[in-house]
Amino acid sequence: MKLIAAMSGGVDSAVAAARAVEAGHDVIGVHLALSSNPQKYRSGARGCCTIEDSHDARRAADVIGIPFYIWDMAEEFHDGVVEDFLAEYAAGRTPNPCLRCNEKIKFAAVLDRARAMGFDGVVTGHYARTQISDSGKTLHRAVDHSKDQSYVLSVLTVEQIEGAIFPLGDTTKVDIRKEAEARGLAVAQKPDSHDICFVPSGDNAGWLRDRLGSEVGPIVDQDGVKIGEHKGAYTYTIGQRKGLGLTVPTADGSPRFVLKIEPVSNTVVVGAREDLAVSTMRGERAVWCGPAVTAQLQRGFVQVRAHGAALPCSYFFDGTLLTALLDEPLLGLATGQAMVIYDGDRVVGSATICETE
Amino acid sequence: MVEEALIAMTAQLARLGNPSSLHTHGRATRKTLEDAREVIAKEVGCLPSEVIFTASGTEANNTALKGLYWQGRDEGKHVVVISSIEHHAILDPAHWLEVHEGAEVIQIPVTHDGVVDLEFLTHLVTTRGNEIAVISVMHANNETGVIQPICKVVEIAGEIPVHTDAAQSFKKVPLSFAELGVYAMSLSAHKTGGPLGIGALILRRAVEIPALLHGGGQEREIRSGTLNAPAIVAFAAAAKSKYYDSAKVSTLRDSFIAGISSALPEVIVNGLKADRLPGIVNITFPGTQSDTLLLLMDAQNISCSTGSACSAGVHEASHVLLAMGHDEVSAQSSLRFSFGATSTSADVDFAVSVLPDVINRGKAANLS
After folding, report:
1. Does B302 touch chain A (CB under 8 A)?
2. Which of B29, B36, B194, B347 has the smallest C-beta neighbourhood within 10 Å, fewest atoms?
3. Predicted local distance difference test score (pLDDT) of residue B312
């Protein structure tokens, strides 16, 4: 196949490209420039898409022996990922930008462009697997569960999965680093990137405050009684306990947790731990990574964080919302997070959580 | 690199001797090096003493622009005039002078065909001539190949020092330092079939400008540093070589333009009405993005170029095409094709044959 390998400058995408070449594909390396004003160097494990990263990607492509180009996706990334991230926080929700990037950039803008240019698909260094079954190509967890990235890929449609190649899903990260070393790739020991790539300082709250302002608002208890103030409701997350700065103690001295964020009134609602418990979640904008979920109740697992646990549940889709009924209640679940349904290791689909109870 | 240059360089690499040394080996190298200087001087129409070797065309440009500015500033002149289509090796030092050395930089606009606006320059010199330290206008543009009217620039400039970056022109079109009448001219060996890492600043005799590099006092104390004899000898060999047949190359270019224009009537050949170098053509393909086209052409083993890239390698709209009146979108839909001494009509036919499909895919990718 003729493939585009998305190369971030990290070890995973470099090995993925090398493996695709070895598998006999005709591969071209492409580094996505996602910032119109990139930093020169990475600071620690944070951020990506620096000039240094693009050099690392180019060097890896040269060592592998494939052509290499840089595609400017800064505008698409800003509009589809950064703006969405801000809008979600402004709406009191907790988004996952990596998921949005896969949905709108890597397997949309890039894949579409690649296909228009005559390529068959996009290779990435994601830890996930695909399998061909009677119902087509399906998406599965990586064998290395600690590195599994199927959660952030759960926004891919069947058509996008058709064009996605994940060569690393059958290997552990430790072995990928060894393989990179053996292949002579200088990025073999490059630190993993963490956090949000477009917030290089790692200070999400500060980054949001610079862009959304820091309007003071009330912190209230469940009866609506004001017990404190905050500087920007969006800097809080559901289930947060520390850093609330509350001076009015509860009657029994038990700690308070963030239960709810109300963006319109700029209010943060706090309450007791048990009030965080969620047993039902509903999600909108459902995407199926294989056969569509129906109104018929099915058994499976739901995962609500990138590296969270798979929680046993029953689920169904009523045509608008995807509903998951948890066997055991979960503490602290924010709207905006993705709920990803698994059937064993297979990713069934996902939706953006809009209601919990 | 042309064969004569390769042979000359290899032979010189095997010889010992610093040309600044006074002993026999040193004198031998000095002799060879001065022979080379005379060859280049003859080819470029200047005196041997007017040739100052540098490590690149960029260094020659920096030395000339900064040196002439500093010299002028000592006389109270702080304006640097450049054309709006200069290579970054002039644009960036000019910007640096503005930020760090108190210069006021004025850019001469160009016509739709990419030729400097002489009326603008005339008006500028008439109104502010006594403030201008240096005027720098390239001899021919590297992106469009459009040749600039340097003799007229010199005429308008009068007593004001004029520098021209002739890296693109040397050996491609007739070039004479003396006939142009400029104060300074930059050359780059690898643009003429010579090696990388060697260039020259041709600087009028008795014009002494402040140096960028200080040290051993070589090259009229304007460019200190041990002379790179093997590269200089190879530069001279390339300069003397007759490998480049301008008439043949321009015929290839014209047949490429004819082929493309007939296959894809919507294309725009930039600077078509101006005098141009034989080997460069810049074409706008409406509805495409040039980085996509470059990738697709590369896959066909055809190398062409987009305007420029930022430090992160992201393709940017060419400042040259923007100056010629293109908007960002059409500037980003343009490719530069270069033809060299070794290009053949079969190469041209092949490029013309693959372009329609490349353009179609490019248009589809642009819409995706």
Report:
1. no
2. B347
3. 62
Write the CA distances from B245 to B250, B258, B343, integer angstroms. 9, 20, 11
- The residue type of B292 is T
Helix spans in B14-80 (H): 24-44, 57-73
**So what's the pLDDT on residue B210?**
96
Confidence of residue A48 (pLDDT cuts 50, 70, 90): low
* Residues 323-352 of chain A whose Cβ lies under 8 A from any Cβ of chain B: none
Across the interface, do A70 and B312 touch by the CB < 8 Å criterion?
A: yes
Chain A residues closer than 8 Å to B329 by CB: none
Give B256-315 pLDDT, tens digit per residue.
999 999 999 999 999 999 999 999 999 999 999 999 999 999 999 999 988 766 666 777
Instruction: Take residue A283 and report the two structure tokens written for it.
Output: 């999600």
Find out whether A234 and A263 touch, Cβ atoms under 8 Å.
Answer: yes
**A54/B298 CB distance under 8 A:** no
Chain segment B178-190, per-residue pLDDT in tens: 999 999 999 999 9
Residue B293's nearest CA partner among B368, B361, B352 is: B361
Distance CA B37, CA B203 (A): 13
B309 to chain A: nearest residue by CA? A70
B368 CB neighbours in chain A (<8 A) are 109, 112-113, 115-116
Asked if A86 is an interface residue toward chain B (Cβ–Cβ < 8 A), one would say no
How far is Cα A176 from Cα B301, in angstroms, rounded to an integer?
Answer: 33
ipTM: 0.81
Element (H, E) at A133: strand A128-133
Say how far apart CA A200 and CA A203 lie, in whole Å.
8
Output the average pLDDT for chain B.
95
Tell me the pLDDT tens digit for each residue of A269-292.
999 988 999 999 999 999 999 999
Task: Fill in the amino acid letter for B208.
Answer: E
How confident is residue B219, by pLDDT bands cut at 50, 70 and 90?
very high
The Cα B340–Cα B281 span in angstroms is: 12
Residue A45 has pLDDT above 80, yes or no: no
Nearest beta carbon to residue B313 from set A67, A70, A109: A70
Residue carrying structure tokens 């007229």? B152
DSSP secondary structure letters along B255-320:
HHHHHHHHH-TT-EETTTTS-B-TTEEEEE-TT--HHHHHHHHHHTT---B-SEE-TT--EE--HH
Indicate the DSSP class of residue A49: -
Q: Report how far apart, in Å, the C-alpha atoms of B220 and of each of A108, A262, B214, B225 are.
A: 60, 75, 11, 11
The answer, yes or no, to whether residue B238 has pLDDT greater than 90, is: yes
The shortest C-alpha distance from A58 to chain B (Å) reads 10
Structure token digits, residue B277: 């170098």
Which pairs with CB-CB distance under 8 Å and at least 24 residues apart come from B297-302? B297/B335, B297/B351, B297/B354, B297/B355, B297/B358, B298/A67, B299/A28, B299/A67, B300/B350, B300/B354, B300/B358, B302/B350, B302/B351, B302/B354
